[in-house]
């Protein structure tokens, strides 16, 4: 029984590795985290549709009660959406908030659901049931390929929005960063590099944070097994108690990190989208300011 309890933590690195389920010619066609993402996506759609129905205005037969959100979960979702709209999306995007809100909210909840699902001991339960190769579980956002795909989607949205907002000419011009044309050989490579670094930072930040916590938890659980096997019940009992207490604290921290990382990814995505929109607004402001500037009046010559 002891072996089963610590099997998932024998190697902390293996604990965060994906498990191939089906391969063709050495190429992974189906993996554990692919299955996990599909299941999480279905849970996301079902739960948010239910919450949206509870948040929406009910029939007139309910009277004033039809304006009240029903259910704790729906209220929780409503609070999150209102906060993101008022504190993150609207300050960055202004009157374009509603256009990008569906994308940004979807990104937030997809990341959040995957982060929270990864905290459930789904893989460990499958090990306890005698399954050597689990078919579902783990943190999909702890896979660099997943976070890179999310960052790539954000990158495409940002660039397409920039081209639509500025036009091709102004979009290319913004790579100068407002510098004189003779600085183009320096400014353009730097700006292009910055454009590439932004989504890379998004992908690595989410991947690293979600992986580090799980490795730490697996290491702490590994100490339990090592202590019990090496020192017995008396000697290893103390190590086990300390490891469990620290693991509980780390688990609460991981719960906080799950929300924080979803928030940071969404906030930075909104910020990157808004940067080019603000560039467009700044250009319009300068243009109107130039048009509204007082013109010199040449007095008519008296005859």
Describe the structure.
Strands 1-2 form a two-stranded antiparallel sheet. The protein is built from 8 helices and 2 strands; from the N terminus they run H-H-E-E-H-H-H-H-H-H. It has one domain (2-56, 70-284). Strand 1 (20-24) and strand 2 (27-31) form a beta hairpin. It has helices at residues 2-6, 12-15, 32-55, 72-93, 97-117, 122-128, 144-173, 184-292, and strands spanning 20-24, 27-31. The protein has 303 residues and is mostly helical.
Features:
303 residues, mainly alpha, two-stranded antiparallel sheet, globular, disordered N terminus, disordered C terminus
Overview in brief:
By secondary structure, the chain is mainly alpha-helical. It is 73% helix and 3% strand. It starts with a helix and ends in an 11-residue tail after the last helix.
């Amino acid at each position: 029984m002891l072996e089963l309890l610590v099997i998932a933590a024998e190697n902390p690195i293996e604990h965060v590795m994906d498990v191939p389920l089906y391969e063709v010619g050495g190429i992974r066609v189906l993996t554990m985290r692919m299955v996990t993402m599909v299941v999480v996506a279905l849970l996301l759609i079902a739960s948010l549709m239910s919450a949206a129905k509870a948040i929406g205005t009910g029939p007139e037969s309910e009277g004033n009660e039809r304006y009240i959100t029903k259910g704790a979960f729906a209220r929780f979702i409503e609070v999150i959406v209102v906060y993101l709209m008022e504190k993150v999306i609207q300050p960055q995007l202004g009157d374009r908030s509603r256009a990008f809100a569906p994308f940004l909210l979807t990104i937030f909840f997809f990341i959040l659901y995957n982060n929270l699902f990864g905290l459930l001991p789904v893989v460990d339960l499958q090990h306890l049931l005698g399954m050597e190769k689990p078919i579902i579980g783990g943190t999909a956002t702890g896979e660099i390929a997943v976070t890179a795909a999310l960052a790539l989607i954000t990158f495409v949205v940002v660039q397409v929005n920039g081209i639509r907002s500025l036009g091709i000419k102004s979009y290319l011009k913004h790579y100068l960063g407002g510098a004189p044309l003779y600085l183009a050989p320096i400014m353009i490579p730097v700006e292009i590099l910055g454009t590439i670094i932004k989504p890379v930072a998004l992908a690595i930040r989410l991947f690293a944070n979600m992986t580090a916590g799980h490795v730490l938890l697996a290491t702490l659980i590994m100490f339990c097994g090592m202590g019990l096997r090496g020192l017995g019940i008396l000697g290893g009992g103390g190590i086990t108690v300390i490891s469990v207490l620290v693991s509980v604290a780390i688990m609460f921290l991981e719960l906080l990190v799950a929300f924080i990382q979803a928030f940071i990814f969404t906030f930075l995505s909104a910020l990157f989208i808004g940067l080019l929109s603000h560039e467009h607004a700044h250009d319009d402001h300068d243009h109107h300011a130039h048009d509204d500037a007082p013109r010199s009046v040449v007095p008519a010559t008296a005859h």
